[in-house]
Design brief:
By secondary structure, the chain is an alpha+beta fold. The protein has eleven helices and nine strands. It has three domains: 28-141, Acyl-CoA dehydrogenase/oxidase, N-terminal domain (Butyryl-Coa Dehydrogenase, subunit A, domain 1); 147-244, Butyryl-CoA Dehydrogenase, subunit A, domain 2 (Beta Barrel), CATH 2.40.110; 253-398, Butyryl-CoA Dehydrogenase, subunit A, domain 3. It has helices at 9-19, 34-61, 69-74, 92-105, 107-127, 130-141, 253-287, 299-327, 333-357, 369-379, 386-398, and strands spanning 147-150, 166-170, 173-184, 191-198, 201-208, 214-215, 230-241, 289-290, 293-294.
Length: 403
């Protein structure tokens, strides 16, 4: 019996290219439900049609594309995981895929949706009164009311329990004083979910735009998240009625539970940023000729591309399993910290390496890695720095709080 001819490396490579998606080497898409794939495809079309054509200009001009808000709302992307109140009621994996596709466009767009959904609508849904839910949530789902989340302060970004903003009772009202810093959506927000220290512990307050003593100036001169609105919030004897206080939670658990929701979305979102950089680099290295051959034909280039693919694939599998745990009601904060730490570090490293392999072209906004790289410098910091998440995992492993 004649032996079959051994397959050459070239033939194996050709077969691999015909069967494997460079952006999905482990077939994560095949593990999704029909509804989850439909959600991803719908958001991808929106990003391709509406975000990518304008985002470079918005980044360069330091502008948030507010004209996208009605389109994001019409697709059901605001408060997408909430049941009722005109929200889509999607599962956690679908929300993750929404974040992934939006951040493929730009971190600023995903940040807008994250803040609206996870940091503003979620606490109203989880801790608000029936009246508060009915008053705010349907209009926020339709994009008619925009929210911001006031937790971080100038002197205590990584130590929210040490907040200086405080509120005291005065008759049937509360009087709020203090300031918040690095607040996404702050200047365009119609309502701020503000966390303040009270004699009872940390409480959440719903402060409407235009309330006397409340101001939200935009922070200028950013070199990251330039297509996102970032503001400071100031409260000078702001009177908040009791009806505007979230009744369902007292203590640091309230804001931290919101951060867990937002961090979950980030775990998925940064994958989209990394994929955008990687896809463009694959195209560039295939066509860029150096020393008489394509850049992709160099061993060093292939090793670096393979390492990026390894990192992206690992992040995809982490995010998918995290989403399944969340949908099953079994997700723990330390698991979110592990994924946020790993996936943000992955995305930033991939964006930086893509920028480097592009050579001189890498510093041009005509290519996406420099924009994503600058954005990811913020994403790896907000919602818990890398060190905070490392210590969270360390505490889970040892039972010892080293903060």
């Amino acid at each position: 019996m004649a032996k079959a001819a051994a397959s050459s490396p070239e033939a194996v490579g050709a077969a691999s290219r015909s069967t494997l998606d460079p952006l999905d080497l482990y077939g994560v898409r095949a593990a999704l439900t029909d509804e989850e794939r439909l959600v991803q495809e719908s958001v991808a079309r929106l990003v391709d049609a509406e975000v990518l054509p304008v985002i470079q200009r918005c980044f360069e001009e330091h502008q948030f594309p507010k004209e996208l808000i009605p389109k994001l709302a019409a697709l059901g992307l605001l408060g997408s995981s909430i049941q009722g109140y005109d929200c889509a009621g999607l599962n956690a994996v679908s929300y993750g895929l929404i974040c992934q596709e939006l951040e493929r466009g730009d971190s600023g767009i995903r940040s807008f949706v994250s803040v609206q959904s996870s940091l503003c609508m979620y606490p109203i849904y989880a801790f608000g009164s029936a009246e508060q839910k009915q008053h705010y949530l349907p209009r926020m789902a339709r994009g008619e009311v925009i929210g911001c989340f006031g937790l971080t302060e100038p002197h205590g970004g990584s130590d929210p329990a040490n907040m200086k903003t405080h509120a005291k009772r005065r008759g049937g009202d509360w009087v709020l004083n203090g300031s918040k810093m690095w607040i996404t959506n702050g200047t365009i927000a119609d309502v701020a979910v503000v966390w303040a220290m009270t004699p009872e512990g940390i409480r959440g307050f719903l402060v409407d735009k235009g309330t006397p003593g409340f101001s939200a100036p935009e922070i200028q001169h950013k070199f990251s998240l330039r297509a996102s609105v970032t503001a400071a919030l100031f409260f000078d004897n702001v009177v908040v009625p009791e009806a505007q206080v979230l009744p369902g939670v007292i203590g640091i658990k309230g804001p931290l539970s919101c951060l867990t929701q937002a961090r979950y979305g980030i775990c998925w979102g940064v994958i989209g940023a990394a994929q955008a950089c990687f896809k463009q680099l694959l195209e560039y290295t295939a066509t860029r000729t150096l020393f008489g051959r394509a850049l992709a034909a160099n061993q060093t280039t292939q090793v670096r591309l393979a390492d990026m693919a390894r990192r992206i694939t690992t992040a995809q599998l982490l995010a998918l399993q995290l989403g399944r745990l969340k949908d099953a009601g079994n997700m723990q904060p330390a698991q979110v910290s592990l994924a946020k730490w790993n996936n943000c570090r992955m995305a930033l490293d991939v964006a930086r390496d893509c920028r480097d392999l592009l050579g001189g072209a890498g510093i041009s906004a005509e290519y996406v890695p420099i924009r994503h790289m600058l954005n990811l410098e913020s994403v790896i910091t907000y919602e818990g720095t890398e060190t905070i998440h490392q210590l969270t995992v360390g505490r889970e492993l040892t039972g010892i709080n080293a903060f």
